[in-house]
Amino acid sequence: MINSTRRYSSLAIAFCITFQLSGCSADENRGNAHSEVLEDAVLLYQYQFTETGRVSDGTDAINYFGAPRFYGPMEARGFTYNNYQYASYYEANGNIVIERRNLDNPDVWEKSILQGYRITSNDRHNRISMGVSAGDGVIHLAFDHHNSPTMNYARTEKGVGDNPENVTWDNEVFSLAPNLGLEDPIQRVTYPSFHSIGGTGDLILYWRSGSAASGVMNMAHYDSNTQEWFFIGKASSRYGVYDGEMKTRGPYHGGLEPDSKGNIHVQLLWREFPGHIRAEKGIRYGNHGLYYTYSNDGGFTWFNNSGEKVVDLREVDIRAQDNEEAAMKKISIETLDRVVDIPMRMEPSNPSQTSAVDLETDEFHAILRHHKKDTTDFYLHHYIRSTEGEWSVRVIDAFDSNRPEIYFAGDLLYALLYDGSIYVSTRERSFTDWKEINMPVSLSDSLNYYDMTRIGDGVISIFSHNVPAERGDATPIEVRDIQIAQ
């Protein structure tokens, strides 16, 4: 193992993060923002979890595509809650591993291996999602999904996240609960993600059912008082008229983002069927548009950009078959405002989009990668929605990346790139003055995931899963603590 290069004092207060995990209210994310970004970041700590992290060889896709696809690192992920940091990853042998450390003793990691399940897929979509329900301290896992026949889910007992020092972190800490413990089967699961419901201590679990261009948004609610899940419903319809024709499509969203009042904001686009549509016009992919919706009651009722109610899922038959009639009663291309008319030309095929709420103003920010107007060149576009529902846009020239994450810390907005690069902009310059932070180590040969929870101390953690020399070869998984501000 690689030892720490320097110790540091850790935060006693955890801030909320929303990168595929959840566990605290939006207000907690404000934190005590640092005062100065370092020009040259400093490596504080480095640790290797394993030399043999699972890497997909893409063979799951051969039967469908005729050749390997979706290959590469399966990605490690991490988050911090109540002064403990947690990491999740797949071992090459299929084990699902969750490690943790007390940030007051950061060199010591404890390991738990989920019992009763091993991942067998070779599809890099099938990443682990983690969340904490702050109301009861339960840690939740969803794993191994890409059009999967069931919801693969495990959880801890009540209080594990709240009283970590009293918990023996062993192979029994997580228990499997397929389909969330619900009687009705949950089928064709893709992209599950946990999201906090501000001020309640409860969670929403989002996933897509169906295929990329014929999919539906699903949500379940975790009640931290009863420690039980219940199915909210299929929130969207894949049907509706586009380009003069009744077609089907699938939703892709940039995140379910809470604001300071507990509202949940979602920016999404639609992928038309078939996915590689209109090749004769030079249009490769079916992704188009910037659409927007929000909920003010934890995911039951959804409104469009104009504030008109689209659907209250308590008023519809959640098991009813999706059809053209349903498109008029749910989130769909028929009921949502297309707030920006982005043409059907966005790359990659799994579109590059991310979002966050500025909790100082409750303005909603989204970044999408698509053609710059009147050109065939791709740029990242930064869209901002005011609290009155007005949208503005600016083109980012400072950097380009597929699926960057964005994160607010007080008056700063960070852009976190997959290759380990980090850029920062300031409120003073309306978040247009993007500047790169000089990182102490190159991570361009890794798939990288960021834990920004301790940014109030100027410290971040980057979880890195190395890209293999040969497709499918197992590779190391590491974490690095880096000081980027003070």
Describe what this molecule looks like in 3D.
- This protein is 1% helix and 44% strand.
- With 486 residues, the chain is an all-beta fold.
- It has a domain of 259 residues.
- Strands 16, 17, 18, 19, 20, 21 and 22 form a 7-stranded antiparallel β-sheet that branches. The protein has a 4-stranded antiparallel β-sheet with strand order 1-33-32-31, with no helix packed on it. A 4-stranded antiparallel β-sheet has the order 4-5-6-7, with no helix packed on it.
- The N terminus is likely disordered.
In short:
The chain is mainly beta and 486 residues long. The protein has 1 helix and 33 strands.
Secondary structure layout plus pairing:
Layout: E1 37-53, E2 55-56, H1 62-65, E3 72-73, E4 77-81, E5 84-90, E6 96-102, E7 110-113, E8 129-133, E9 138-142, E10 153-155, E11 175-176, E12 189-197, E13 202-211, E14 214-223, E15 228-234, E16 239-242, E17 245-258, E18 264-272, E19 287-295, E20 301-304, E21 309-312, E22 338-340, E23 353-358, E24 363-371, E25 378-385, E26 391-396, E27 405-409, E28 412-416, E29 422-426, E30 435-436, E31 446-451, E32 459-466, E33 475-485
